[in-house]
C-alpha cells in the first residue's frame, strides 16, 4: 500500500491512535533491520529529519538519496529506479516536483511509496496537522479550520483530510489561486458523507470568522520562484496578522513551516502564545513513525 494522497489512508484513525501511543514512548524494535529510502528532488528540513529520526527510533535505518547526485539526475527512468530500489529497500519516501513522478514510482515499486510532498499534495504534513488538532479536541465534529493563502499542496491535503475526518474547513484565496477543482469536488463529496463543510471564499476576514484553527503557508511554493513578483501582488491582502487573528476570535495558529516571516504571517502571530507550529513540526515525527509501522509491517501480499 502507498500513501500518495491523504485519502489513501483509510485507517487514519488507527494510525493517529498509534501515533498518540508512540508519542509517549519510544518503540525501538518495530522496524528492526528495515531500511527506508528518501528520494528528494526538492529541499527539506522537517520531512527529511523526521523520517530519518523515525527510522532510528524504530530500530531501522534511512538512506537519503539526493535526486541530482543519484542516477535520476542523469536521466535514469523512475520506472527502473523504482524496480531497483524495491530490491533493496522496505519503503521509499519521495519528494518530487511533479505529482506524476510519485504516482509513477508508486506504480512500479514493489514496496510502499510515501509522498513526501509533490506539487499536488503533502499528505504527511496534513496527517500530522490532523493529529495536532485531535490532541486538543474531543473529536473533529464542529471544529473549524480556516486556511488563508495559496490553494497549494498543503491546502489540498488539508481539504481532503478535513473532509475525511469530518472537520469543517473554509479556505480564502485570491482569484486564480484556489485549490484545483477536482480536489475541491472530492473534498465536498467526502464532506457530505462525514457531515462536515468545505467552503471556498475570496474574503479572508469572512473565512476566519469563528475559526478554531487558522492556517497559512508560503505564497511561493518550491518550484514557483519565477512567479514570485505576481504572487506577491496577488497575496498582499492575505497575510495572517494580528488584525486577522482578532477578526477570527483568537484561534490557534498553524503553519507547516518553513515560514516567510513578514509575508504570509507576521512575527508576532507566528511566535505568539496561540501558535502551535512547533507542535505541528514535532508531530511529523510521531505520526510518521505510526505510518511507517503501518505501511512497512503489512504483509507483502497486501501491497
Ligand atoms: N513542512 C515541511 O514539509 O517542511 P520541510 O520542507 O522542511 O520538509
Ligand atoms: N507549499 C510549500 C510547502 C513546504 C513544506 C511548498 O511546496 O514549497
Describe this structure in words.
The protein is an alpha/beta fold and 303 residues long. The chain folds into 2 domains: 6-122 and 284-302, Aspartate/ornithine carbamoyltransferase (Rossmann fold), CATH 3.40.50; 137-275, Aspartate/ornithine carbamoyltransferase (Rossmann fold), CATH 3.40.50.1370. The chain is 43% helix and 14% strand. It contains 12 helices and 9 strands. The protein has helices spanning 12-24, 46-57, 78-88, 99-108, 123-134, 153-165, 181-194, 204-208, 228-235, 242-248, 267-270, 277-296, and strands spanning 35-40, 61-66, 91-95, 113-115, 144-148, 168-172, 198-201, 213-216, 252-255. It has a 5-stranded parallel sheet with strand order 7-6-5-8-9. A 4-stranded parallel sheet has the order 2-1-3-4, with helices on both faces. Helix 6 links the parallel strand 5 (144-148) and strand 6. Helix 3 (78-88) packs across helix 4, helix 5 crosses helix 6 and helix 6 (153-165) runs parallel beside helix 7. The longest helix is centred in the last third of the chain and has 20 residues, at 277-296. The radius of gyration is 19 Å and the shape is globular. The chain starts with 11 loop residues before the first helix and ends in a 7-residue tail after the last helix. The model has no long low-confidence stretch (mean pLDDT 96). The structure holds phosphoric acid mono(formamide)ester (CP) and norvaline.
Tell me briefly what this model is.
This protein is an alpha/beta fold and 303 residues long.
